Amino acid sequence: MRLSLILSTISTISIASGFHLFPPAFNPRQSLQKATTPITAFSPFPRTDITSLSSTETAEASGGETYKFDAEVSRVMDIIINSLYSDKSVFLRELTSNAADALDKRRFLSLTEEKQFSDGGIKIKTTPETLTITDNGIGMTKEELVSNLGRIANSGTRKFSQEIGKNDDTSLIGQFGVGFYSGFLVADKMTVETCREGGWHKWESEAGEGYTVVETEKPEDMEDQGTRLTLHLKKDCLEYAKSERLEELLGKYSSFIDFPIELWTEKTEYKQVPDPEDETGEKKKTVPEKVEKWELMNTQKPLWLRDPKEVTDDEYGEFYKSTFKSSYDDPLKHTHFRLEGQVELKSLLYIPGMLPFELSKNMFDEDSKNLKLYVKRVFINDDFEDLIPRYLKFIRGIVDSDDLELNVGREILQKSRILSVVRKRLVRKSLDMIKELKESDDYDKFWTNFGKYIKVGVVEDEQNIEELSGLCLWTMSDSEKMTSLEDYVSSMKEGQEKIYYISGDSKSQCLMNPAMEALKKKGYEAVLCVEPLDEIAVQTMGKFSDKEIVDATKEQWEDEEDKDQKEKEEERLQPAIDYLKELLGKKVADVGVTTSLTSSPSAARQGQYGMSPSMQRYMQAQAVALGEEENPMLGNMNEVKLELNPGHSVVNKFADMVAAKAKTADVYGELLYDLAMITSGYGVEDAKGLSERIVGIMEGGGDAGGVADAEVVG
């Protein structure tokens, strides 16, 4: 119903006014897949009113004038109330921002026209059924009431900016002209009492029922100029008449507004009074007392607007703790900057001292709020994914920009060139912070908490891959301390042309891999990829410092002399090789000989384009998570080649068994395969068979009956 209403309304308005709400190729059905998704069709800075919404009918009523909205206006009003905002509580942000705009306008005019202006402020008070917002700002004349509040998207703020010209001294928030109507999200009637010059007037409306404008007396508790807005709350919105709820919302949305916001509160205080039961009059007792008073809501100062040279480290730390509710977390690093030129931006970014709790369960938790976006110190949202890439999800900070294009509901960023510029600047500043941290003693702590995010960045951020690669730390085969690839390259042995890595589920498993024998033989160190993300990262990098990064288990280690020796040994062991091919069948892609092994009798090697065992397990886990029995991407990538060490006594013993046609040759052949799979990181599927083979050897005195005692077949 709502979708059809919106689409039909849009069609009616477009035909009636010639104004297109949706750009070409925009699919409103995709935009409205969820009922809570705000419409993003309004232009962020409309050059034309959505409708020519001057009143079409007037009539005398109660000594004033009654105005009727156009039919189209009523339907647009329905869209604003029911579809524009995803959270009805934003009405307080919009109306408080309007009051701040009014104060800003009056302050600006008092400076330019040398008029007297007392200290401006906003006061909010409630009754059980109403909410009142009062300001001593610029106010409105009768004509402005009709023009600004009788026309949807007729922004008085934008018009004021155009009249005075763009001026850095102004700090006006509202530009869309629809924020006022957000009051109807929680109210079924709104009353505005206001005066700029020429006496006081009262505007009153019940949403789609039109509105009335009448002359009125100045409220006793107001100055000669200003505005009072009263919302008559809906029955299901009476929570907004409670000071506790308003205090929560003002703290969220308006804690950095430039003018004081005072809320009338009722608090219980405790005081000492004489105990009437004490005849001496010396004893005291504590009694509760309800106290009503104005309480200042926006006590915090927008630290990011100050000159960084004037802010101390303690102030940065306290601001971080209070803003991001991290009482026990001292940030590792911060950067405070202002950008000018293509985009004006003020920002304060932090690297937390510990991994936020919500990210410890899910490193990309959608409910984790890392960046808070403000426009003119008014909080807009903390869930803008496009502001910063997900691999910097752990960065906390404030972004305050006047140039980012928002939708009319001010809850969603519009895709734009400016957004792209801001994103690049935030990434640059974040990486600069991490680079500076890398030169300090705190980098190990940073890496423990956030290292996996940097490796995700290596995989996802092609533009900054070189810089991110240099920030990564890796487990090494010859060191207990994690090391950067820069240090690895600087300590490479003379003649080493490549960076070698081995993957496994742990460091001990990597060190057990037969490929380590070839590396040790050459005197080379290995980067140990102990998590699937490590292997994906090094494969994405491909090179570092002009050095190719290769999988040591796939490297061909034989030189020309070794190749000659390998051919001779393959010829000598050919009967054993053929025997194993027939015995193992489809378990292996091939069987051969290698001269790179020094202590292991056999090894399992992947083909050049095959997946490592740890990567295969990771891919299979992904398939299971998606409800699939097998990952189709694996294909033949899990087929291995069994390689034998011709210098090992076990291999030669097996060759003798094959030559003697001993029954136990099968047992030894299977064990050579099992051993290769275990040490190479694949594990054994037939654990029961392996157990039986080991028990058989143990019962046979360590030789499965021995070759001499074995039965010869044929």
TrEMBL record:
UniProt entry tagged with the keyword Chaperone: yes
Gene Ontology terms, MF aspect: ATP binding; ATP hydrolysis activity; ATP-dependent protein folding chaperone; unfolded protein binding
Keyword Protein transport among UniProt keywords: no
Lineage: superkingdom: Eukaryota
Leader peptide range in chain numbering: 1-18
Keywords carried by this UniProt record: ATP-binding, Chaperone, Nucleotide-binding, Signal
List of residues binding ATP: 94, 98, 135, 140, 148, 155-156, 175-180, 227, 410
Any Pfam family the entry gives: HSP90
NCBIfam families, per database record: PRK05218.1
Family of this protein: Belongs to the heat shock protein 90 family.
PANTHER family cross-referenced by the UniProt entry: HEAT SHOCK PROTEIN 90 FAMILY MEMBER
HAMAP family, per database record: HSP90 (MF_00505)
Protein name per Swiss-Prot or TrEMBL: Heat shock protein 90
Species for this entry: Triparma strigata
